Amino acid sequence: xxxxxAEIDLGAIRENVLLACRLAGPAAQVMAVVKADAYGHGAAPxxxxxxxxxxxxxxxxxxxxxxxLREAGIQSxxxxxxxxxxxxxxxxxDHGLDQCVSDPxxxxxxxxxxxxxxxxxxxxxxxxxxxxxxxxxxxxxxxAADHLARLPAIRLAGLMTHFADADxxxxxxxxxxxxxxxxxxxxxxxxxxxxxxxxxxxxxALLLHPGSRLDLVRPGIMLYGCHPRGARRPDDPVLHxxxxxxxxxxxxKDVTAGSSxxxxxxxxASRDVRIATIPxxxxxxxxxxLSNRGQALxxxxxxxxxGRVCMDMTMVDVTALPEVRAGDEAVLIGRQGDEEITADExxxxxxxxxxxxxxxxxxxxxxxxxxxxxxxVPPAVAFPPKPLDNSRGPHL
Length: 396
Ligand SMILES: Cc1ncc(COP(=O)(O)O)c(C=O)c1O
Known about the structure:
With 396 residues, this protein is an alpha/beta fold. 27% of the residues lie in helices and 23% in strands. It has 2 domains: 10-224, TIM Barrel (Alpha-Beta Barrel), CATH 3.20.20.10; 243-341, Beta Barrel (Lyase, Ornithine Decarboxylase, Chain A, domain 1). The chain has helices at residues 10-24, 35-39, 43-53, 63-71, 89-94, 104-117, 141-149, 172-190, 203-208, 343-349, 354-359; strands spanning 5-9, 29-33, 57-60, 77-80, 98-101, 121-126, 154-160, 197-201, 216-217, 243-248, 251-255, 260-261, 267-268, 273-278, 295-298, 301-306, 314-317, 329-336, 339-341, 367-370. The longest helix has 19 residues, at 172-190. The site of pyridoxal-5'-phosphate (PLP) has 11 residues, from helix 9. Pyridoxal-5'-phosphate is lined by residues 33, 81, 162, 202-204, 218-221, 228.
């Protein structure tokens, strides 16, 4: 295997899921959001550990992601959070997925497909309370629910919304969204329409807005060990980063003063330097914006990335570490010795958020898992001490 890989600590994910379950409390179920290949961590192993640790639902963006989970043998409820094209209705029905809908026409397509298959599909109506992305305006929720009630193969399973700003210091807009959501839920109650599950909370809301927990919470980024609002503040609960992006030095060379490194000659050595080359580049998800700005951990110390990050390789100035040799490990995200580079630190340098840094780690980077069985395979149901308790939700 190439030395460049992402090491996933399933124990860290388990701890983060346990925290989400504790915060959710006994009244709310936990949906582990595993879209985008579990934010780059690998959907099936993450889903298994999350379910074993107490999550009862999984959330994905598109039905194709859920199909991968079903093929991996995962039978829990899975909600497709994103909108679908008519052609995707078949996948939703055949894999027994729950679907989020913002448009009654989508419900019609699902109803037709479900009737053809002799099945029933569970839908979650999405209300746009202020995100401005997808969702029905609150005044259209009641007519949409009436419409669903007329479709024989459709069951209304939930009412949901998504927060735009739950990580903000000012809670006012999240509170306003909650009030709009509660009003929409009340309108359905007043009409005698039963909504089994109301849900709204992403990681930020779960951590910061206890009133938003309702019947189900949908944490994503916190399960991977990152705080939704960036670097941890003193009062934030401890999360456990689950991903370590590492490689090994392929070459070390001495470079004389005046020589340049990499494309565009953006780094010119002002003195004699030692340069290590590492086999990881922007095609692997290392942001090119780290050129001449980022760092790698080598022999437990920080060393600067010099010159432009290339597609497949990057150079590191190891002048301060004369003992460095080819084969030494270099860490781009994660811990080495007493030092740590967090996904948030990388995100800050790249002008983005930890979410993007994690889910852009490319398919060329193999994921390895701890713990594994003797054959190196992640456990199918990891950490048996906690029994799988999915009793609060119906299953396939
Ligand atoms: C509808 C929905 N719910 C929950 C989440 C999880 O959000 P986070 O990763 O911020 O916890 C997402 C992610 O974007 C989402 O789109």
